[in-house]
Amino acid sequence: MGRVFLGIILGVLLVPVLVLGWLWRGNVPVAVADPPLPQEHQLVGLALNARIQRDQVKAPPIQADEDNLVAGARVYTEKCAVCHGIYGKPSVFGGSMYPAAPALWEKHQHGTTTIVGVSDDPPGETYWKVVNGIRLTGMPSYKSLLTDTEIWQVSQLLANADKPLPPGALEILRGDETPAATAAETGQEAK
């Protein structure tokens, strides 16, 4: 009986010591080019999804109308496009991140369904990600950088990425917006 307890105690103490030794020797894959740990994506995804489900706002306080989608397109191109790309043009370096920043305007397969970006996520989930950011992914928290309304506008825009968007939003997302169009919308004359 004493040997069993000794074995259990050594096992309980030895495992953390071996893990710490592995960490101190620099063997953990921390570089973007390193292969992921076994089951890394599933473990991290499980924790992230549970947290989002617990905390997300279920009903957006703004509608996905033309004004909000156009405003969301402006915020998106200024703050998000550098990592996630614009309509019809992926980010130059978003794919080099680990994990890769999702291309939010490209179609991809999700099971048997074709999805555009994160349009299969409810706006509250995208809102949570924008407000809080996601550790160790490069996704920052925009809580102190954007207003709550701006975050909801971007969230509604991305939730509707698979639907026809207003022409003004598409112009902005394609980089086609002209100074005259911008001036007309803000009530200023183009020079």
Could you please describe the fold and organization of this structure?
By secondary structure, the chain is mainly alpha-helical. The protein has a domain at 64-178: Cytochrome c-like domain (Cytochrome Bc1 Complex, Chain D, domain 2, Orthogonal Bundle). It contains eight helices and two strands, in the order ααααββαααα. It has helices at residues 2-24, 40-55, 66-79, 81-84, 123-132, 148-159, 167-174, 179-186; strands at 107-110, 113-116. A two-stranded antiparallel ribbon has the order 1-2. β1 and β2 (113-116) form a beta hairpin. α3 packs across α6 (148-159), α3 (66-79) runs parallel beside α7 (167-174) and α5 crosses α6 (148-159). It is elongated and about 75 Å long. The chain starts with a helix and ends in a 5-residue tail after the last helix. The mean pLDDT is 89.
